[in-house]
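SEVERITY: medium
COMPONENT: batch folding queue
REPORTER: lab tech (J.R.)

DESCRIPTION
The queue accepted two submissions in a row. Attaching both inputs and their returned C-alpha cells so the on-call engineer can compare them side by side.

ATTACHMENT 1
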Amino acid sequence: MTEILVALLIGAIAGLIDIAPMIKRPVPRESIVATFVQWVLLGLVIPFVSWSIPAWLTGSILGLLGMTHP
C-alpha cells in the first residue's frame, strides 16, 4: 500500500512540474488535465514494471512510450 502512495506522489509531483508553465499560457484546460493524469498514471506504472535493465532506462522507455502528443 505504501508503494502505491509513493508512486502516486511521485507522479503527481512530476505532473505539477510539467503543467506549471502551461498554467501561465492560454492552453486549453483539457490539455492541462490530460498531461497531469498522464504523469500520475506513469508514476503508477513505472515502479511496477520489472525488466532486466536499469531502472532509469525502464522509466525513460515507458515515459517516452507514454507520451500522447500528436
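ATTACHMENT 2
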Amino acid sequence: MAMQPTSPRPLVFCPACNGPLRPVGRMPVRRDAAQAGIVTLAQPGDTTPAVGIDVYRCHDCGRLELYDHEFLLPSF
C-alpha cells in the first residue's frame, strides 16, 4: 500500500480565507469506499486498492483541503 510521490503542485489558496495552502502529505483512501461516496482511510493489511489523496492545510485559518490531482477517484 505504498503511496507514490507526486510532483510539486502549484500554490493553492484556501476557499475560506484565501490564505496559502501548504502541502501536508498524502492520505491513502480506499478506492471501493470512494466509489460508494464516502472517504475511508486504507489500513495496513487491506487487500483493497488504495489511492493517494493530497492533503493541504491553510497557513492562516487551519482549514484542511483534500485534492485528487491525478483524478484517481471515480467520478459520480
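NOTES FROM REPORTER
The mean pLDDT is 80.
No errors were logged for either attachment.
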